[in-house]
Specification:
By secondary structure, this protein is an alpha+beta fold. 47% of the residues lie in helices and 25% in strands.
Length: 105
Amino acid sequence: MKQFIAILLCSVLSFSVCYAKDNKKKKETVKFFVEAMHCNDCIKKIEKNIAFERGVTDLQCDLETHIATVTYRADKTTVDKLVEAFRKIKMDAVEVKDEAAEEKK
């Protein structure tokens, strides 16, 4: 009986640790309107700087719409920190709220 309880306890604890690790690596995606994004050099500037910010895992820029889509690890950075990173390269970034996602909440 003691062995069964020990095995059960170990399996529950290992599941909890695995779940906690997965939860910390939660990725979120945010879209920013960047008015100063006018050309390919602007995109290169963004990619060269924002892509290497802590926690950023993916970055896509659309020149036509002036939208930069950033995927990041929520445990490593925040939207405010990303906005500040844009400011450092002299570009104002305004978060674009996705209305469909807001309605689901």
